[in-house]
Structures are given as C-alpha cells and as structure tokens.
Write a structure and sequence with these properties.
Layout (H helix, E strand, L loop, with lengths): L2 H22 L8 H20 L9 H21 L13
Helix pairs in contact: 1-2, 1-3, 2-3
Keywords: Membrane, Transmembrane, Transmembrane helix
Organism: Actinoplanes xinjiangensis
Protein name: Membrane protein YeaQ/YmgE (Transglycosylase-associated protein family)
Length: 95
C-alpha cells in the first residue's frame, strides 16, 4: 500500500463519514466521531482488499477509489442504522 493510497482512503472515508453524520443527525443521536471512524475504517479495508487482489498501478486506481466509496458508504450506513434512537430503551433495559 502506498502513502497516496492511504491518504486517499482516509480522505474518502472522512468525506463519506461527514456526509453520513449530517444525514444521520436529523433522526438519530450518533456521536460525531462514529460515522467518521466507520467511513475511514471501511475505506482502509477497501484499500487493503484491493491491494491484496493485486490491481495494477503503484498508486490509487479507479477500482480502488470506487471500492473505497462503496465500502465507506456501507460502513456509515450500517453505523447510522444501528445507532440508538433517543428515548428508546436498549435491548438490555427493562421498564
């Protein structure tokens, strides 16, 4: 993995995470750092998987970029959907 691939993964993940945070803020209470972390982690995972698949090119490729965006969007969506809603009891709470 090159340094440019790492920078691209962090950038893509942060942008997707910030966009997901803005969308999730309307209906759920999600900590600010959680969508960002999920987006960055998912984009890094996409980079690692792309590099393991031995795609051509020393730097980021189009396939790598597309997978970073898709993985980051899926990670942020998963975090936003599984976050607790305010005022609802969690699974361990009994009223």
């Amino acid at each position: 993995m090159t340094g440019l691939s790492l920078i691209a993964a962090v950038s893509v993940g942060a942008v997707i995470g910030a966009a997901g945070r803005m969308l999730a803020a309307r209906c759920r209470t999600v900590p600010v750092w959680l969508p960002l972390a999920a987006g960055v982690a998912a984009a890094l995972l996409a980079t690692v998987l792309t590099r393991m698949a031995a795609t051509d090119g020393p730097g980021p490729t189009l396939v790598e970029f597309v997978l970073q965006v898709l993985f980051a969007a899926a990670g942020v969506t998963l975090v936003a959907l599984t976050a607790d809603r305010p005022g609802t009891p969690s699974s361990g709470e009994i009223r």
